[in-house]
Amino acid sequence: MGEGSKVIFHLFGILDVTGEVVMMWIILAIVTVISLVVKHNLKERPGVFQNMIETGVEYLDHFFRDLLGQEKSRKYFSFLASLFIFIIFANYSGLLPGVGLTDYAKAPTSSLSVTAGLGVLTFIFLQVAGLRCGVKHYFKRFVSPMFFMLPLLLLDELIKPASLALRLFGNVFGEEMVTEELYNIFPIGVPIVMMVLSLLFCALQALVFTMLTSIYLDEVTETE
After folding, report:
1. CB-based burial of residue 75 (10 Å sphere; 0-12 exposed, 13-18 middle, 19+ buried)?
2. What angle (nearest 5°) sits at the alpha carbon of residue 64, between those of residues 60 and 67?
3. Count of domains observed in the chain
């Protein structure tokens, strides 16, 4: 968990830098470099690398379009796709050799602090998206169909970021703990099977987080 992470150094004397933060910086740097390379080397007849990137983007486009419709999907694609890409990179980083075994490199999503940050960021994005559809519409959804539903609907809205954060953290952290315990009991064979299953599991958790975010987004931006 983020609370039990060892502080590697202090940035500007006030920010604690842990293994999760270091891995976040590495992920952001890798994604930025890949984006710039692809952007400056686009070709009409794409090579293998460009074709892989375009296939991934096309898959995400279809995924969000099925959930939100074409108009909303295109409008909010940048945020949703960025969220998915970061989470899946963060999840897969835990499968790299040495990651998690040292204080200097840990999977970001295995820390509650990181997943809580993603939950809060998503919550803010949802509120801004809802307000942009109209202030009257934004507040009306808290009193529909009846005014006495206001406390329950407000509570439901406030629970969403915690639900997203805890679900992602619990699944990723739990998977790491199970793999570690199996390694201690059966050092040969079983952990390898778990790591193979983790390849699917990590992608699934990224899909679930962004799918729920898309569903919440569709609710807050739904107009009559």
Report:
1. middle
2. 150
3. 1
